[in-house]
Amino acid sequence: MSSPSLDELISSLKCLPGVGQKSAQRMALHLLEREQEGARRISAAISNAIDTVKHCQRCRNFSDDEVCEICSDSGRDQGTVCVVETPADVLAVESSAAYRGRYFVLLGRLSPLDGYGPGQLGLDELENQLSAADIQEVILATSATVEGDITAQYIADFAARHGVRSSRLARGIPIGGELEFVDSGTLSKALSGRQKID
After folding, report:
1. Rounded CA separation 162/136 (Å)
2. pLDDT at residue 192 greater than cutoff 60
């Protein structure tokens, strides 16, 4: 490109997940040609978020305050904690409107090769909460990967030491899914986790 400023904008947009050279170029040109006011709003919102957003002291989710709105909500079930890997997982569970308890965000999963151990995930903090608070159940909503399973088992083990019940999200065939298109691992989990029909 002939403009160093435009080149820098394109290069900067490539830091977003799933955005390559062509997508970054298309976004940059759109912002400059048709959405300059939108670009200013985006710039201001990013700057404000970087300066304002931090991690909740209780659950480690993103928050503008020391304690997030979910943790501050006395109407939520204080005896249930849903353990997730990322703030995006909190948004996903909240969008289901099926859960009204608290959260704990690991900000990763156990993966020694990638440098993620119990300390990086705040597991000592979670264990302290289990011993200090009146928590009856930990819902393990980690990903369905080897690392996610290891993380869930690690947490279930120390929850059991504190007399706290652990449960894992059910896995299986998605709503609307057809058996012929379901992979064998998912089908195996669905069969082993089958439920009785009353």
Report:
1. 10
2. yes
Cβ partners under 8 Å of residue 143, min gap 6: 85, 109
Decide the pairing of beta strands 54-55 and 62-63: antiparallel
DSSP state of 6: H
Task: Over range 88-115, report the average pLDDT.
Answer: 93
C-alpha to C-alpha distance for 39 and 31, rounded to whole angstroms: 6
Q: What is the mean pLDDT of residues 43-66?
A: 97
Q: What CA–CA distance (Å, rounded) separates 30 from 49?
A: 23
What phi and psi, each to the nearest 5 degrees, are found at residue 175? -60, 130
User: How many other CB atoms sit within 10 Å of the CB of residue 73?
Assistant: 11
Rounded distance, CA 82 to CA 93, Å? 9
Distance CA 149, CA 141 (A): 10
Q: How many residues does the chain have?
A: 198
Domains recognised in the chain with CATH numbers: 9-18+26-52 (no CATH), 76-168 (3.40.1360.10)
Q: CA 106 to CA 82: how far, in whole Å? A: 11
